[in-house]
Design a protein that fits this description.
heterodimer; A: mainly alpha; Four Helix Bundle (Hemerythrin (Met), subunit A); B: mainly alpha; 21 helices
Chain lengths: ~170, ~500
């Protein structure tokens, strides 16, 4: 067994376990911390797939910024008095059914059907395409229009946040 | 560098989008510089929109092919330009509505954001209408949604306003999440996000089951925008709670962009070719859109019409009526022919005018009496004969009775259905129209056949209000009698439709 497979098994087992622990905890803070662990393991998996840039973004944006936001919101909402969601078995059942359905779909796609499986990509080109340089070039040439659209999306979000945060109309 | 050069060469195709982006930036900067003085902001936006409208008209006549178009991310063609024209004209009217709306005037200190967000929505809708790539579809949909969530809760002066915004946001986040999941499955299956490339991979021996599943997931996102049946739950609450100008805007512009996106998604991703008779041949193994849309459109119209029967708030009633109209519009997509497409285009011209008109009258009356309950409309026909008669024209047109434009729109939709040999569906649609007569006429009954509660209530209409109501009411009658120009416009747009 080479190092890559060992790392893959390590990361994926921790990711799966932390995901399960995350959704079964009653305390939202513990859930959030396990989510951080899950994100970190996913970043490791991205690295194994030669996607360095996405791995770093995953750590900085998701495990870093977004999780801090999550914890802040949990702190401000103080949800310890509101645990009704846990008790509704109907919701749990629906969630489990949806989860199993999605899992079955993914297994089906990956193992029994993949129309682009014949497309072999060489390891070197996959390493190259994961670098910041390549991603930057793609964003600023081929995908410049979606990039600009994303810019306007952020602008609209910023203006929207401003409107919502401004004091109520007297 | 190669990519960059083709991009620069094809920048002229993006003129309307560039213009509207400049308007957005201009509105924000003006708002910052002029601080307290915001009276001219609507005029800046209006001027910008009118310039953009001219650029869109220019675009209508461009002859390009998809391979030339901006790395195949966007498609510029006549059908797209037509829908952009509907969007931009609706935006102009909405800015005008905002000028005379009491509700919007009261939130004076936030006008800069208001017009900036409308510009943001227009950019999003333009991209939505012309996108040929799943990334573009998702980004533009999000841009439109984010701007409209905030606009729906813009006035913030009542509980229902904030409720509208929150509900819209929760439903929107759900459906865009579902859509994104569908997109990720399609990317996983085919390794590409370009709709044309997806089509060719799937045509070469695709698996229909997973592809079908992903297509339905993506439809969830689009169906939410056009408020088609299983995804319509947000519509009544949002339409009721949002400021009337925004309600009217959502019911026209956002729906137009959604339908354009739906048509684009089907034609680029699933239609193998269009044969001589104008029928769309679907890719082998793709989902049977005909059956799917038949079910969705029957559900949408029936649900919209029957739920509208019980409404006491006129905005809520118009919300259900707009769901019903989404159902009728889907009929034009069901047939999957060029004729159906031209019927959709024709219906959109008519629908935009009459629905904007109805919302305008509701807004003017709400400005005066401060209520949108149908019970408070008692005897208003006597207090303001002009608005009463115009409301009658708009509502009769929404029902689809001659001699109004609504009749012509429905006529062409049903003709397209009958020519595609879908008689049962046409019969269901006609029965639905009959049902809709009840709730539209009920408003008129309250306005004209009941004595006013307050005998000395007199509603005066200012000159600006006269002009805008007439601008909308006259075409409804005019296009009902002399409809050749709009029919020709619809046919011509489809003839220039890009494959």
């Amino acid at each position: 067994m080479n190092l890559e497979i060992i790392l893959f098994i390590l990361f994926s087992v921790i990711a799966a376990a932390s995901a399960v622990i995350m959704i079964t905890r009653a305390n939202p803070i513990i859930s959030a911390l396990f989510l951080v662990l899950n994100f970190a393991c996913l970043a490791g998996l991205y690295l194994l797939l030669n996607a360095q840039f996405i791995a770093v973004t995953q750590i900085i944006v998701y495990a870093g910024a977004i999780m801090v936001l999550f914890l802040f919101v949990i702190m401000l909402l103080r949800p310890e008095h509101d645990l009704t969601l846990q008790k509704k078995s109907k919701i749990k059942f629906m969630a489990a059914a949806a989860g199993i359905f999605v899992f079955a779909q993914l297994v089906y796609i990956i193992f029994f059907f993949s129309p682009n499986a014949s497309q072999k990509t060489s390891v070197q080109s996959s390493i190259n395409s994961g670098t910041i340089e390549q991603i930057g070039t793609a964003i600023f040439t081929k995908y410049v229009i979606p990039f600009e659209a994303a810019g306007y999306l952020l602008l609209a979000a910023a203006i929207g946040a401003l409107v919502l945060a401004k004091k109520k109309f007297e | 560098m190669e990519n960059l050069k083709t991009l620069v060469d094809s920048l002229y195709l993006l003129k309307p989008e560039i213009a509207i982006s400049c308007v957005l930036v201009l509105v924000i900067i003006m708002d910052l510089i002029m601080d307290k003085n915001k009276t001219f902001l609507p005029y800046v936006a209006l001027t910008g929109f009118i310039i953009t409208a001219f650029l869109v008209v220019e675009q209508y006549f461009f002859k390009t092919s998809i391979t030339q178009n901006l790395q195949k991310l966007l498609v510029i063609d006549a059908v797209g330009a037509f829908f952009k024209l509907i969007v931009i004209l609706a935006s102009c009217l909405i800015v005008y509505f905002s000028l005379i709306s009491k509700e919007v005037k009261e939130a004076f200190d936030r006008h800069g954001e208001y017009y900036a967000l409308i510009c943001g929505m227009v950019i999003g809708m333009f991209f939505m209408i012309s996108s040929a790539d799943l990334i573009m579809i998702y980004l533009s949909l999000e841009l439109v949604s984010l701007s409209s969530y905030v606009l729906a809760g813009f006035t913030k002066n009542s509980l229902r306003n904030s409720e509208a915004s929150l509900k819209y946001f929760v439903f929107g986040a759900m459906s865009s999440g579902i859509m994104l999941f569908g997109i990720s499955i399609i990317f996983g299956l085919t390794g590409t996000t370009n709709l044309l490339a997806v089509k060719s991979v799937m045509a070469a021996g695709g698996n229909s089951l997973t592809f079908l599943f992903a297509s339905i997931l993506i439809f969830a996102g689009i169906g939410y925008k056009i408020s088609a049946a299983p995804f319509h739950f947000w519509t009544p609450d949002v339409y009721e709670g949002a400021p009337i100008t925004i309600t009217a805007y959502l019911s026209i512009a956002s729906k137009a962009a959604g339908f354009a996106l739906l048509i684009r998604f089907i034609t680029l991703g699933y239609v193998q070719q269009i044969d001589a008779s104008g029928a769309w041949q679907l890719v082998a193994g793709s989902i049977d859109w005909k059956k799917f849309f038949t079910v969705i459109s029957i559900l949408t119209m029936t649900l919209g019409n029957f739920a509208a029967l019980w409404q006491d708030n006129i905005k809520r009633m118009l919300a259900y009526s707009s769901i019903a109209h989404a159902g009728y519009l889907l009929l034009g997509v069901v047939v999957l022919t060029n004729q159906g497409l031209s019927a959709v285009i024709l219906y959109f011209i008519v629908y935009a005018i009459m629905n904007l008109g109805a919302f305008l009258v509701v807004m003017l009356i709400a400005n005066k009496i401060g209520s949108e309950e149908i019970d408070d409309y008692k005897g208003l026909g006597y207090a303001t004969p002009f608005l009463g008669v115009c409301m009658a024209i708009f509502l009769i047109s929404l029902t689809g009775l001659p001699p109004t434009a609504g009749f012509i729109g429905k006529l062409y939709l049903f003709t397209a259905l009958i020519e595609a040999k879908m008689i049962p569906l046409a019969v269901i649609a006609i029965i639905n129209s009959v049902v809709s007569l009840y709730y539209y006429i009920r408003v008129l009954k309250h306005m004209f056949l009941t004595r006013p509660q307050n005998e000395d209530l007199v509603i005066n209409t200012s000159f600006a209000e006269y002009v805008i109501v007439l601008v909308l009411a006259v075409p409804v009658i005019l296009f009902g009698i002399y409809f050749t120009p709009i029919v020709n416009l619809a046919k011509n747009s489809v003839a220039l439709f890009l494959q």
